[in-house]
């Protein structure tokens, strides 16, 4: 049964049903407006789904101690998302959590259905033909959760985090308390520095403009614009600020017209910049994908400038991270994250830097053997061409730079390991070519 009218009263009635559960009832009452905002934002209209969510979340809440109170909104958010998707049958295409796409788990991992056997190859081809569009649609629609318009404008708001024990509870009816507590400890470490960040007071005032009188509203607007012109607003607050200014100008609430706001946006977009000192806020920039949409509608030129700066910033961060990983590659090449480390380096370091690192480590035979093994593991799968075809030019460049090096004065056995690496790179290139789907 669906309901289309007075969602708020329906949610309220569900919460009242828990009035005998004192702690849980009090918790739901404290978050009633937030729950309503999310359900309304996601357009959840099936009240059986909402009822299911409240019952599942009761288990989650009662198994999280007050130490994790700061995470309650995140837990509530994730439980609602997975409950809704499960009730809609959207997880049926995945046999287990390991098959979930990255948009859900947010993990760096090998691509879904990374093929290493003939039987897996057959399964992969069948899924490519039968479920490719379904999976693509699922990934596209799931972005509304990881890039949510409601939560991103709440400074102390919710961040999407995948929590496997909650996923298992919803999809399999299983609960693992130890894994749940371990995951909460991980999230707590991430959450605290975000909460300690000082918000821009004038943006917050504009966000709550309904509580201001005209003088207070104009004063907050003028001070915010002054900060923008003086370069005192960082990039992420810049985009957030203009989302509000655009909205308020369209609603004819600002004392400035739309053209004045548009001129200011274009002029200041040319001046705003990001530096690597902003990288501690990097994950906050996920909201950029939402905020730029409204900016683009308002001024395509300004949006183009901001997107270019944002993309260059991401490339710089990735390159810096890759260089750091490359510099200590010999130390962590055998750790649990070696696949992610290898991918980061291949995707973001230039060929000359990689070859220079190999040259410095040419007497480290264990390093060369492991590096060669990573090339083999990464590129020898039966569908490598579908994932890595565009990397062939870079692999050729690495191989050719290694061949041009004068290894003649080195130990013959060291040369042997270098030769093995070169041959493995060449073999990887051939396998990529031979496994590309038509």
Would you kindly provide a written description of the structure presented here, covering whatever features stand out?
By secondary structure, the protein is mainly alpha-helical. The protein folds into three domains: 189 residues, no CATH class; 119 residues, no CATH class; 106 residues. The chain contains 24 helices and no strands. Helix 4 crosses helix 5, helix 14 packs antiparallel against helix 15 and helix 14 crosses helix 16. The N terminus is likely disordered.
Total discrete domains: 3
Form type? globular
Q: What is the count of helical runs?
A: 24
Bin the strand percentage: under 5%
Give the H and E element order. Answer: HHHHHHHHHHHHHHHHHHHHHHHH
Mean pLDDT: 81
Alpha-carbon distance between the two ends: 46 Å
Number of strands: 0
Poorly predicted runs: 1-5, 108-116, 152-156, 192-196, 279-283
Helical fraction: 55-70%
Over the alpha carbons, how many angstroms does the gyration radius reach?
26 Å
Largest sheet: none
Estimated structural class: mainly alpha
Explain the layout of strands and helices.
Elements: H1 7-16, H2 22-30, H3 32-41, H4 47-62, H5 72-87, H6 102-105, H7 118-130, H8 132-146, H9 149-152, H10 164-172, H11 177-195, H12 201-207, H13 214-229, H14 235-250, H15 258-271, H16 288-298, H17 300-327, H18 329-332, H19 338-348, H20 351-360, H21 365-379, H22 384-388, H23 392-404, H24 412-434
Helix pairs in contact: 1-3, 1-4, 4-5, 5-10, 12-13, 14-15, 14-16, 15-17, 16-17, 17-19, 20-23, 21-24, 23-24
């Amino acid at each position: 049964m669906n309901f289309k009218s007075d969602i708020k009263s329906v949610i309220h009635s569900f919460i009242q049903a828990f009035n005998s559960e004192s702690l849980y009832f009090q918790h739901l009452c404290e978050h009633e407006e937030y729950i309503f905002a999310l359900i309304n934002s996601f357009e959840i209209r099936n009240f059986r789904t909402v009822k299911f969510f409240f019952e599942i979340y009761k288990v989650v809440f009662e198994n999280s101690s007050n130490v994790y109170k700061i995470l309650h909104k995140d837990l509530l958010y994730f439980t609602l998302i997975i409950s809704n998707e499960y009730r809609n049958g959207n997880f049926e295409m995945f046999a287990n959590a390991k098959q979930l796409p990255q948009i859900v788990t947010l993990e760096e991992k090998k691509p879904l259905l990374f093929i290493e056997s003939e039987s897996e190859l057959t399964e992969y081809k069948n899924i490519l033909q039968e479920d490719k569009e379904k999976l693509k649609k699922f990934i596209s629609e799931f972005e509304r959760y990881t890039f949510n318009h409601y939560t991103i404008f709440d400074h102390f708001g919710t961040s999407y985090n995948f929590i496997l024990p909650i996923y298992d509870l919803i999809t399999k009816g299983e609960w693992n308390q130890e894994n749940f507590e371990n995951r909460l400890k991980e999230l707590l470490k991430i959450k605290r520095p975000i909460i300690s960040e000082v918000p821009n007071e004038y943006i917050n005032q504009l966000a709550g403009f309904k509580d201001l009188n005209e003088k207070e509203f104009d004063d907050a607007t003028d001070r915010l614009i002054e900060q923008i012109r003086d370069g005192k607003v960082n990039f992420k607050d810049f985009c957030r600020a203009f989302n509000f200014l655009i909205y308020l100008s369209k609603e004819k609430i600002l004392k400035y017209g739309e053209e004045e706001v548009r001129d200011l946006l274009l002029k200041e977009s040319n001046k705003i910049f990001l530096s690597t000192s902003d990288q501690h806020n990097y994950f906050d920039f996920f909201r950029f994908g939402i905020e730029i949409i409204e900016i683009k509608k308002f001024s395509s030129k300004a949006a183009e400038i901001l997107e270019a700066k944002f993309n260059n910033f991401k490339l710089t961060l990735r390159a810096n991270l890759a260089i750091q990983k490359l510099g200590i590659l010999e130390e962590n090449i055998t750790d649990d994250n070696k696949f992610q480390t290898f991918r980061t380096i291949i995707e973001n370091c230039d060929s000359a830097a990689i070859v220079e690192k190999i040259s410095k480590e040419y007497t480290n035979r264990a390093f060369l053997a492991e590096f060669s093994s990573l090339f083999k593991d990464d590129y020898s799968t039966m569908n490598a061409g579908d994932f890595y075809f565009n990397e062939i030019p870079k692999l050729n460049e690495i191989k050719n730079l290694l061949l041009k090096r004068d290894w003649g004065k080195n130990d013959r056995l060291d040369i042997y390991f270098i030769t093995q690496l070169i041959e493995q790179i060449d073999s990887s290139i051939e396998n990529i070519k031979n496994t590309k789907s038509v």
